[in-house]
């Protein structure tokens, strides 16, 4: 009986429990924590990463956007809904733009291709592709 008890105690303490970081289980549902990609320069800023990301994104658009002109030389203004992904390496991919003006959509895609490499987003503690869909008014 002593040996059985000793064996049971040793066996119980020899098992290790492993879990994924950023995953929680409550009842019958499992949720994973998602962390957005981090724009260069936002790692050490005091701002929340989402706010810093949006600020840097707006600065990038303002600095790089060139308003297209129509056949009469007037600037084209309008809305474009931009969809893109930031992959596991922090690179932008799968860029599409939808809107009534082809020239604005093309310009939105062009400036998105100029995004710098970022620290990738995380899902359940591992690098993951994060999808974005954003409206832009030009």
From TrEMBL:
Record-linked InterPro entries: TonB_C
GO annotation, biological process: transmembrane transport
Pfam families listed in its UniProt record: TonB_C (PF03544)
All copies of domain TonB C-terminal, residue ranges: 52-138
Taxonomic superkingdom: Bacteria
Name the record gives this protein: Energy transducer TonB
Species, as recorded: Antarcticibacterium arcticum
């Amino acid at each position: 009986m002593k040996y059985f008890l000793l064996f049971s105690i040793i066996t119980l303490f020899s098992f290790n429990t492993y879990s994924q970081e950023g995953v929680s289980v409550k009842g019958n549902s499992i949720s994973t924590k998602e962390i957005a990609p981090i724009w260069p320069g936002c790692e050490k800023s005091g701002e929340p990463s989402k706010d810093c990301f949006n600020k840097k994104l707006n600065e990038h658009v303002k600095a790089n956007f060139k308003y297209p002109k129509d056949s009469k030389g007037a600037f084209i203004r309008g809305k474009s809904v931009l969809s893109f992904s930031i992959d596991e390496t922090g690179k932008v991919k799968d860029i599409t733009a939808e809107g009534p003006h082809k020239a604005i959509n093309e310009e939105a895609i062009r400036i998105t291709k100029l995004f710098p490499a970022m620290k990738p987003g995380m899902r359940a503690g591992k690098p993951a592709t994060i999808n974005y869909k954003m409206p832009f008014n030009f």
